[in-house]
Amino acid sequence: MFDSVRGIYCAIRRPNLEDLDTITRWLDDPYLNSTVFDSSTFVNGAQEQAMTWLEQNATVYGADNLLGLVCSVKSGKPIGMVWFNNIDWKSRTADLRYLVGEAEYRTSVFGPEIALLSLQMAFNVMNLHKIFGYVLSGNENSMSLAEFGGIKEGVLKNYVRVGDGWNDYHLYAMFSDDFRAFLQKHKDGVLRRHFKKGLF
């Protein structure tokens, strides 16, 4: 399933047990805890959560959750992950999340391509109809990226516990038709290198 999802800078592959320590480190990362998620919600800790994800990921088709590891095309090094939660195969919807785990790859190149590959996987590989995702208030880079191609559907006020306080989740969505239109709109612009290489 993951082999067909490759960009200019990143590729998505299936994670394995050798990736456990890397994923655990990302889940414990203070920066990611303030911008992507709050690891205090992991009842048994980050390593146990990572192991649970790997076990759930053993069944690719028909599972409710799917995890992919994002690697640098140049080095092969794991740099982030993408995961689909609450997959409804009948309605063809899912909750999409992704992160850039390695700090040196949090640039204007890798984050957008991970988002793009995630959408490609959702619509062209998994054949989903709609994906939605949540962005924490304060994560301006992710909000800008989500608004570049997605539709803002609402805000969940004081929805997630972060440290000693609460934060809002901004809900974004995209439909498969919107993704196809997005590709056509940008094929001669920001996506021209992807089209030239035959990635779309």
UniProtKB/TrEMBL annotation:
Keywords attached to this entry: Transferase
Domain N-acetyltransferase: 12-147
Coiled coil: none
Record bears the keyword ATP-binding: no
Pfam family, one: Acetyltransf_3
InterPro entries: Acyl_CoA_acyltransferase (IPR016181), GNAT_dom (IPR000182)
Gene Ontology MF terms: acyltransferase activity, transferring groups other than amino-acyl groups
Annotated protein name in UniProt: GNAT family N-acetyltransferase
Organism: Enterovibrio norvegicus
